[in-house]
Amino acid sequence: REAVALVAKFFLQNLHTLQRHQQFGQLWLMVLRLMLLFEKRGKDDRDAELEEIARETLKNLLQVLLSMKVLGFVAKKGSGSAAEPTGDTPVWWQMTWDCIEVFLPGFGDEFSKSTVPEKRIQAPEPPAVLADAPDPAPLR
Questions:
Q1: Which residues make Cβ contacts (< 8 Å) with residue 99, sequence separation at least 6?
Q2: Mean pLDDT, 10 residues at a time, over the chain (140 residues)?
Q3: How far is CA 121 from CA 72, 101, 117, in A?
Q4: Nearest one of 61, 2, 72 to 30, comparing CA atoms
C-alpha cells in the first residue's frame, strides 16, 4: 500500500522535471506498469484495499496527465474510431490505453466517459428575474 503512494507521490512531485526528459514516455509506462501490477496483486491476493488504492491512484495519475495535456485519449487499435492516433500523437499514448485495456478491460472507456465532458455542453441559464420582488432600498 505504501509503495503505491510512494510511486505516485514521487512521479507527481517530479512531473515537471520528468516530462522534459527525452524518455518521458518510457518513464510514464514504467509507472503505469507498476500501478497495474499493484492492482493485479491486490486482485490475486484478494486484497480489496490494495486493489482499490491502486485503481484510484491510477485514475488520479491519469487525471493529472490529462488535465496538464501531457496525455490524451486514443481509441483502441483497430476500432476505426475518428479518434485514431494521428502522425503527431506520441506512441506512448496508444501504449498507455492499450496496456490499461489488457489489464483492466473497460476501464479506459469508463474513465473517459467520466472524465471527458459531453460534446453538447449546455450554456448556463441566465439568472432568474424575480418579477414580484420589491426594488431594493436605495443606499444612503
A1: 29, 32, 33, 36
A2: 94 94 95 95 94 94 93 71 60 92 87 63 38 48
A3: 20, 28, 8
A4: 61
Cell of 45: 491476493
- Judge whether 103 and 38 are in contact, CB under 8 Å: no
Pick the closest to residue 38 from 50, 56, 26 (CA basis): 50
Q: Within 13 Å of residue 4, how many CA atoms lie on the same side as its CB?
A: 22
Q: Is 104 helix (H, G, I), strand (E, B) or coil?
A: coil
Measure the CA–CA gap between 39 and 105, rounded to whole angstroms: 13
Q: What is the dihedral of CA 72, 15, 53, 118, to 10 degrees?
A: -30
Q: What pLDDT does residue 77 have?
A: 66
Distance CA 34, CA 54 (A): 9
Is the distance from CB of 82 to CB of 73 less than 8 angstroms? no
pTM summary value: 0.73
Residue 32 CB coordination number (10 Å)? 21
Structure confidence at residue 79 (pLDDT): 54
Is residue 116 within 8 A of residue 73, CB to CB? The reply is yes
